[in-house]
Amino acid sequence: MDVQVGDTILTKKPHPCGNSAFAVLRVGMDFRIRCTKCGREIMLPRVKIEKNIKKILRGDAPL
Q: Which one of 24, 59, 62, 63 has the minimum C-beta count within 10 Å?
């Protein structure tokens, strides 16, 4: 998958706050993502993130 820093991803499973949109902060073996609703940052392995991505919004595209 071609995910870049600055993209927004929509996930299949929502965050506990109810939001499913996350901003990508770091890409590599691990991804650091930030919930766009509550601001919580999460670091997850690439394999887990790639399975959970529903859609990628490029750059600062509005939701």
A: 62
One-letter amino acid for residue 40 of the chain: R
CA distance 27 to 40: 17
The SS3 assignment for 30 reads strand
**pLDDT (tens digit per residue) in 20-57:** 999 999 999 999 999 999 999 999 999 999 999 999 99
- Cα–Cα distances in angstroms (integers) from residue 28 to residues 3, 34, 40, 54, in the given order: 10, 15, 19, 19
Domains of the chain, CATH where assigned? 8-57 (2.30.30)
Q: Is 16 exposed, middle or buried (0-12, 13-18, 19+ CB in 10 A)?
A: exposed
CB 12 within 8 A of CB 59: no
